[in-house]
Amino acid sequence: MKPLKMYVLVRRDLDVTYRCVQGGHAISKFALDHYDKLKEWNNNTIVYLGVPNEYVLNLWVSKLEDKEKIYSCFIEPDLGDKITSIACVDTGEIFKSLRIV
User: Fold this and answer.
1) CA dist., res. 45 & res. 48, Å (int)
2) Mean per-residue pLDDT of the chain
3) pLDDT at position 13 over 90
4) pLDDT value at position 101?
5) Among the four 30, 63, 73, 95, which has the fewest Cβ within 10 Å?
6) Cβ neighbours, 10 Å, residue 27
7) Is there a contact between 18 and 43 (Cβ–Cβ < 8 Å)?
8) 2: pLDDT confidence band, cut at 50, 70 and 90?
9) CB under 8 Å to 15, separation ≥6 — which residues?
10) How far apart are CA 23 and CA 27, in angstroms?
11) Three-class HEC string of 33-49
12) CATH of 5-100, one of 1.10.8.190, 3.40.1490.10, 3.90.1150.10, 3.10.20.600
């Protein structure tokens, strides 16, 4: 089996610095929501991937749900409670179409 990595999907329509912050929030949310899965990942590789905007990020939520993946979303209060990032511990096949931020 491939090693688990932390995949962080962030919106490319956000400022670069803000992307990093929002991705960090998603990782923290994942840690709170899925502690056991976090231990499996064991603080190994983190991969930041970009999506164009919130609409596409929401499409990824549906895709992750359909594939029964374990993930967490971060909703940013300062941006009108919009989703800004997703964290998912996985082997990564599902994310092959995305590019690194």
Assistant:
1) 10
2) 95
3) yes
4) 83
5) 63
6) 17
7) no
8) confident
9) none
10) 6
11) HCHHHHHHHCCCCEEEE
12) 3.40.1490.10
